[in-house]
């Protein structure tokens, strides 16, 4: 059984833990002091990216994530997690630059603008104060799914990012989260 680490300091990590458990993975909580090297995969969940970023920096978790990424094992960032993995740059959140994309936080506005949509590839995507990918380097970054022709799920080498919350959807076998986890960690 594959052991997948989920960063749990803040945000929706417990929902990934639940979904992973129900879909036959061994989810394990990750904090700054946890050793990452034994993991088969790692998830950076949605939440508040500025809080998560400060936690990572203050506790050396950013360096651990960079080292883990260099092992070429799969890392998934959802929403705030995607912001952390990208090259986003502001004073508060600089981003780890592990995927060749920029991102705009809270692009679609406030919580009231959050929505569930059908993606261009027929998947269900739940957006919560979602960011938007921009400047996607299409020669190196693959677009796995899009909405209104805008990328919402991208991949570069072992780094996967969604601007939506796949862990919030239904857990049937055809749902995006099972496709992501099974494709991701096979
Ligand atoms: N659902 C989410 O993860 C929202 C991300 C959040 N707006 C941020 O910038 O951190």
TrEMBL record:
Enzyme superclass (EC): hydrolase
Highest taxon of the lineage: Bacteria
Catalytic activity: L-glutamine + H2O = L-glutamate + NH4(+)
Keywords, in A-Z order: Glutamine amidotransferase, Hydrolase, Lyase
PROSITE patterns membership: GATASE_TYPE_1, PDXT_SNO_1, PDXT_SNO_2
EC number, UniProt record: 3.5.1.2
Metal-binding in keyword set: no
UniProt keyword Transmembrane helix present: no
UniProt xrefs under SUPFAM superfamilies: Class I glutamine amidotransferase-like (SSF52317)
Classification via InterPro entries: Class_I_gatase-like, PdxT/SNO, PdxT/SNO_CS
PANTHER family the record matches: PYRIDOXAL 5'-PHOSPHATE SYNTHASE SUBUNIT SNO, PYRIDOXAL 5'-PHOSPHATE SYNTHASE SUBUNIT SNO1-RELATED
Similarity comment: Belongs to the glutaminase PdxT/SNO family.
Official protein name in the record: glutaminase
Organism of this sequence: Candidatus Bandiella euplotis
């Amino acid at each position: 059984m594959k052991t997948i680490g989920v960063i749990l300091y803040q945000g929706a990590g417990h929902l990934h833990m639940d979904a992973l458990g129900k879909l036959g993975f061994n989810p394990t909580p990750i904090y700054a002091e946890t050793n990452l090297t034994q993991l088969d995969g790692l998830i950076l969940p949605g939440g508040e990216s500025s809080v998560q970023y400060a936690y990572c920096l203050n506790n050396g978790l950013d360096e651990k994530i960079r080292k883990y990424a260099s092992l070429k094992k799969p890392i998934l960032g959802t929403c705030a997690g995607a912001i952390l993995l990208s090259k986003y740059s502001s004073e508060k959140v600089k981003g780890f630059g592990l995927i060749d994309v920029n991102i705009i936080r809270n692009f679609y506005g406030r919580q009231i603008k959050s929505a569930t949509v059908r993606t261009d590839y027929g998947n269900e995507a739940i957006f919560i104060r979602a960011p938007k990918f921009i400047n996607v380097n299409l020669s190196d970054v693959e677009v796995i799914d899009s909405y209104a022709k805008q990328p919402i799920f991208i991949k570069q080498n072992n780094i996967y990012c969604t601007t939506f919350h796949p862990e919030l959807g239904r857990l049937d076998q055809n749902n995006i989260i099972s496709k992501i986890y099974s494709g991701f960690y096979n």
